[in-house]
Amino acid sequence: MSLSFRFGTVGSPTATPPKPGGTVGGIRYAASIGLDALELAWVQGVRVGETACAAIQQAATEAGVALSVHAPYYINLNGDEEKWPRLRQYLIDAAHFGNLAGATDIIFHPGTYFGRPADEVLKVILPRLQGCVDELRASGNPVTLRPEISGKAAMLGSLSDVLEMAKTIPGVVPCIDFAHLHARLGDGAMNTYPEWMSALDFYRQALGDEAMRHLHIHLSGINYGPKGEKNHLVMEEADLDFRNLMRALHSAGVKGRIMCESPVLEVDALKFKELWMEVSGESQV
Ligand SMILES: [Zn+2]
User: Do 157 and 150 meet the contact criterion of CB atoms below 8 Å apart?
Assistant: First the structure.
């Protein structure tokens, strides 16, 4: 029996051997230690060509590793009118080359409010995001675009923001970062079983049962202050209640991928997998 979740890292595992190295090496190493997902960290820019993408896709298929892409940090759906054509190209390029590499999901940071109310910002960004999806579909690209929940209250990307994007635009589905969700308001909220159950319920009401079988989750420990996220932490150093989070995911009957972003990537990814198996009672045969 396979597990309800695939587990992996955002970026190649830290201990990936130097040969063959690169993304292909990262995929093979991830599979060799018991991980079955990898998010390609194209966060500083999309610097791959078609040949590299074909090699990545082949390696992932052979290793049974599911791929996603973390698009460049520079994307900002709420950027100035004059900057927008350049900003959107980061998302289009990540989606184009990600699809060539066999990735099914493109994760991106939606941007900033620039101090404006969320509802005003959504009016600006929804048509822009729709335009990106339209362009991808016109070129035959089926990837899912995943705006990520942000770790700071000043940044676009509350749970309701990303659900609004997903409800409005087919082909857009959130990336749920539980560390960011916890850090975002800076008061220690979103760290208990009932809070996670209500968040998952809110998600189900917005997007329906089918979406609950394809959650894309980012997870790590997190350090935060009154303004939200400061930096990611290893599991043991963080106040996040990982065990009760796994209990909530199990009670909600959800499936998908859990991608680790802690400083000790694969070490914590494997701990998340172990904890999930313990809490859910699922096993791999
Ligand atoms: Zn991210």
Answer: yes
Q: Is residue 285 part of a domain?
A: no
Q: How far is the CA of 48 from the centre of ligand 1 (A)?
A: 20
Number of domains in the chain: 1
pLDDT digits (tens, 9 = 90+) for 182-207: 999 999 999 999 999 999 999 999 99
Centre of ligand 1 from the C-alpha of residue 73, in Å: 8
Separation of 148 CA from ligand 1 center, angstroms?
A: 6
pLDDT band, very low/low/confident/very high, at 93 (cuts 50, 70, 90): very high
Supply the CATH number for residue 30's domain.
Answer: 3.20.20.150
Could you tell me the distance, in angstroms and rounded to a whole number, from the CA of residue 176 to the centre of ligand 1? Answer: 10
Whether pLDDT at 285 is above 80: no
Per the prediction, the chain carries an average pLDDT of: 97
Distance 49 CA to ligand 1 centre (A): 23
CB 39 within 8 A of CB 10: yes
Quote the pTM value: 0.97
Runs of H (alpha helix) within the chain: 22-32, 50-63, 84-100, 118-138, 159-168, 178-183, 193-207, 242-252, 265-280
64 found inside a domain? yes
Q: How far is the CA of 246 from the centre of ligand 1 (A)?
A: 21
Q: From the CA of 285, how far away is ligand 1's center (Å)?
A: 32
Give dist(CA 173, CA 167) in Å, integer. Answer: 8
In which domain, by residue range, is 12 found?
Answer: 5-280
Q: pLDDT by residue (tens digit) across 244-271?
A: 999 999 999 999 999 999 999 999 999 9
Cα(51) to ligand 1 centroid in Å equals: 26
What is the pLDDT, as a whole number, of residue 45?
96
